[in-house]
Amino acid sequence: MDEVQMLVAHSERVTLRVGDVFLKVDVDQARIDAEVEAIALVPVPTPKILWHKPPVLAIAAVPGTALGRLGEPSTASPAAWAAAGAAIRKLHDAPLPPRRGRAGRDVDELTAELDGECEWLVTNGVLPVGLVTRNRQIAEAALRPWDPAFTHGDLQIAHVFVDGDEITGIIDWSEAGQGDALFDLATLTLGHEEHLGDVVAGYGTDIDLDVIRAWWSLRSLLVVRWLIEHGFDPFAPGCEVDVLRSRL
């Protein structure tokens, strides 16, 4: 053990790394409970839970390296991206967990939240009205009925670990639960549209690509304010604002 690394730190949660152990401190006990519950249920590789004493969860590091990072080119092979798609399909086909997750928000509630965020972005001059309006139009395709699946709920590429072409672990299950399967696929490929075909090939079923693209717009519109308020930069190259601009 050489040092303590602070990986994530904001008002809601902190994640520290000490050697091969990750310590997650979360003010919302429900998120920790959801993570423990999901790791026990999912049919894909996950980190080992070492101990759990609220509000702290200790988990072991998984082998391999992250599939990529938002805003950076991914060095992972097409086969690794396809393997991620296959793992997600296995997750989505698993028996439903008892709780609803982040990807399972009610359509009316989600629509109201989206409209509120769009108004805030325009009123405060954060983004041009044309950019917000166009992406709000695209996002509409994601606001539809969906069949529930076992979803991860925060399937960023940094949460999927690979060794060569094999998936070695998927981390950060605090938002897991019943939800829209296409939300997971869109989150994984956000900012990495060039790998969408590989993921879909691994997933192995027909996917409505317009809904995936709609989720890219919807998710990006929803998180810009949160990112700014919590010290992150959605304007960084390749990140959320660039995703919105790419839809024009």
From TrEMBL:
Q: Which InterPro entries match?
A: AGP_Transferase, Aminoglycoside_PTrfase, Kinase-like_dom_sf
Which residues are in the Aminoglycoside phosphotransferase domain?
41-204
Q: Which SUPFAM superfamilies match?
A: Protein kinase-like (PK-like)
Name the source's superkingdom. Answer: Bacteria
Name of the molecule in the record: Phosphotransferase family protein
Biological classification of the source: Bacteria, Bacillati, Actinomycetota, Actinomycetes, Streptosporangiales
